[in-house]
Amino acid sequence: MSESDSGSTHRKIAIDNVKVFDGEIIRPRSTVIIDGNIIGDDDSGISDRIDGQGGVLLPGFIESHSHPRKIADLQSLTSHGITTAFQLACFSKEHVHSFQKLPGLVDIYSAGAPAAAPGSTHGNMIQNMISKPNLLVQGEEDVTRWVNDQISWEPDFIKLIAQTPGLSQESLNALVVASHGHGKQVVCHAADANSHAQAMQSGADQIHHTPLDGPITADLAQQVLSRGQIVVPTLSVMKAFAGLDLPGQTSYESARESLRIYHEAGVPIIAGTDANHEIAAVVSFGKSFHDELELMMEAGMTSLEVLRSATVLPAKHWNLNDRGVIEPGKRADLVLIAGDPIADIKAIRNVKRVWVAGEEYTGPRERATEV
Known about the structure:
The protein is α/β, with parallel strands linked by helices and 371 residues long. The protein folds into two domains: 12-58 and 323-360, Urease, subunit C, domain 1; 61-317, Metal-dependent hydrolases (TIM Barrel). It is 30% helix and 20% strand. The chain has helices at residues 71-79, 93-97, 121-129, 143-151, 169-181, 193-202, 218-226, 235-242, 252-265, 287-298, 303-309, 312-317, and strands at residues 12-21, 26-35, 38-40, 48-51, 56-59, 61-66, 82-87, 107-110, 158-162, 186-190, 206-208, 230-232, 334-337, 351-356, 359-360. The strands form three sheets. Strands 1, 2, 3, 4, 5, 13, 14 and 15 form an eight-stranded mixed β-sheet that branches. Strand 1 (12-21) and strand 2 form a beta hairpin. GO terms for molecular function: hydrolase activity, acting on carbon-nitrogen (but not peptide) bonds.
């Protein structure tokens, strides 16, 4: 995945009196230099100084599963400290690139259309949204055509849908091989226990969602770990779906228990919400990311682990080597908060200032949540 550039004006800013989260601990008060769009290590020629008032400076949060559709969505993400977000479905080449590289707003990486089978739940959704049969995968023999069509849109990664009825295991496997052949990471949607097994067997790089119909098994978690796959649990949307009282087994406890099992097995977990305003299980942009980290803690993760799941780990697993930590030469994606998020994760709700590639966000903000 390529690293993004910034069009921000070159300025040198010192943020004094801040405690930096370095990915492991919160360090004593110091000064961080923003040198254009990167973190600097030279305090000469400072044009502005900002008093951080003893707040904690974190790397900008990375939201690994969202569906922004308008500028207001990007503003909500950015105002909550999210400086990088992944858009999990676009339905044209123009859509893929429409929100990318907007100065001062969250940096967006996008998939194209998700790979789904005709007659499947997602296949029907896609056809209801945009009636283009060529966006669907007609079977294993159609994989090469479908992947080549998607690659022509220049997406940052490829998304597959595992569900029953849906794509065969052979089709899923072939889609992963073809996508990897083009140098693209593969994300697999899997919202039930059987789909998690399909996603694991497919060799997809990332498995998104956690099942509502029953928890995954410890054996499956070990297989996911051994294959080097990671999980994005999206507890926010799973909780929203469970609250709809839909027919069938939809227990949020199954989703939470699945995360606990993956975590206990040592599978890397990164944070994503499935923020959207298009389906019945609506999930807010920005605020839900803060909720997600709290839900992940309720499933057994520590505050340090969820902070890493929102910063250094997604940068690593999405191959974004220019961000995720506050170090000289790294992209100046920063969020300043009041309070200690390791002592109390709710402190991340007290966002004071946000910088995206060195440019401070100055757009609309929701009122800070009291903690």
